[in-house]
From TrEMBL:
SUPFAM superfamilies: Aspartate/glutamate racemase. Keywords: Isomerase. GO terms for molecular function: amino-acid racemase activity. InterPro entries: Asp/Glu/hydantoin_racemase, Asp/Glu_race, Asp/Glu_racemase_AS_1, Asp_race. The keyword Chaperone does not apply. Belongs to the aspartate/glutamate racemases family. This is Aspartate racemase. It comes from Thermosinus carboxydivorans Nor1. Pfam families: Asp_Glu_race.
Length: 236
């Protein structure tokens, strides 16, 4: 069994969500059958959003330092539950000698397999403004000939405020739940077949958003891949 490193703190609730989903997806019957996990919850990593949108301090060096810390602590591979931080994925991976799972690639692979009609029926991205701006999902969708929709400026403001509220600890009573639910319902009635939680705070809200539409949770996909790699007899 391999040891997992979680490069967390972006934010802490999203880190805890990944940890819980790893536990829930592990076929364990006792404590001893669970996966050893090293969590580095580092909330001092500079804002990924501010770095991209406002040219503020880059998180690159702190992301690399955190990954190196996990490697030196004994992790065999690393999971990073933050979509926007994947903008620096190559820099982090080049600085360490263990694999860093790419959550965005995992998600796009899953969508390509599960939604064969995504080339003609759009899927919508719910993410930070920074993730949308740098095209982390759009580029991968385009490479596969699939269609992805991004929010309008007004919708993006709602999503960003909802994310900020989760980071501040407000989930069940998040004041933006109704607005999210409304525009997700409107889009689904106009042909959108699924919504990607392209920020790891969004899955925490999905449980409180009912509707006749599919919700794609990259954190869950990451957790399932972590379990697969940790329990696999093959090299991670």
């Amino acid at each position: 069994m391999r040891t997992v490193g979680i490069l967390g703190g972006m934010g802490p609730m999203a880190t805890a969500d990944l940890f819980i989903k790893i536990i829930q997806n592990t076929p364990a019957r006792s404590d001893q059958e669970h996966i050893p996990i090293i969590i580095y919850n580092n909330p001092q990593i500079p804002s990924r959003i501010d770095a991209i949108l406002q040219h503020a301090e880059s998180p690159r060096s702190e992301l690399i330092r955190s990954a190196v810390f996990l490697e030196q602590a004994g992790a065999d591979f690393i999971a990073m539950p933050c979509n926007t931080a994947h903008y620096w994925y190559n820099d982090i991976q080049q600085a360490i000698n263990i694999p860093l799972i790419n959550m965005i690639d995992l998600t796009v692979d899953y969508i390509a397999d599960k939604y064969p009609h995504a080339a003609v029926s759009p899927i919508m991205l719910l993410a930070t403004a920074a993730t949308v701006k740098v095209g982390l999902y759009q580029q991968r969708f385009a490479a596969r000939g699939m269609e992805i929709l991004v929010p309008t400026a007004q919708e993006q403001q709602i999503i960003s405020q909802a994310i900020d509220a989760v980071k501040a600890g407000t989930i069940n009573e998040n004041p933006y739940l109704d607005a999210l639910r409304q525009f997700m319902t409107d889009y689904s009635q106009n042909g959108v077949i699924a919504f990607i939680a392209g920020c790891t705070e969004i899955p925490l809200l999905f449980a409180h958003i009912a509707g006749n539409f599919d919700k794609i949770d990259p954190t869950l996909l990451l957790a399932q891949e972590v379990v697969r790699r940790a329990l696999s007899s093959e090299h991670a």
